[in-house]
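To: structure desk
From: M.T.
Subject: fold request, one chain
Message: Could you run this one when you get a chance? Sequence is below, nothing fancy, just the single chain.
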Amino acid sequence: EKQFNSSENVPEIYTRINDAPYAINGLPVLTEEAYSVGLSVRNRVEGEVTIKVDLSQFSANYEVYLEDKATGSWTNLKEVNEYVYTPAQMGDDHDRFVLHFEKIAEVPTSVEEPEQHDITGIEIIGQKEFVVVRVGQELLQTSDATIEVMDINGRLMNSVNTNEPETEVDLPDNSGVFVIRVNAGGVVETGKVVRSLGQ
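Reply: Done. Structure tokens follow.
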């Protein structure tokens, strides 16, 4: 269980199980597509606070994101291990931060070299501000391809129809994880991409 610090100058972070605070919180073997764990913070002195994360011992095939609901940002903690925030309130805040574990999809994100999808003939390549979608010519013979950009909750953010073998589609302006769904010639391919605006 969490033992709180007696000094007001020390910011604190913890999780809760049935409203009880815990400093150590274990999960069983990760098998699902996604997990979310609420993070509570306690701040009793105003000023910037830095959350620093050590994932050197975390070897599971999952991306780990810190969501800050106050700013709308999602930070990939495997790429950036520090996050700086300013407390919105003094005392305990149970509703601002969420730790998300997202199973790494077959499709790579933010890479220069795409992974080949010989079975579907569709490639989804995440870049910083947009996603590149490549569709094989044979899938474009009967109809245009439809490219949909959705947020992690499944809300449609953008939709593009194209008959081009390579198309760039802009991602939303905010940081986050986005699901890309491509429907071409009756073949559907999905992948996740990440946009991080940085801190």
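Reply (cont.): The mean pLDDT is 85. Let me know if you need anything else for the meeting.
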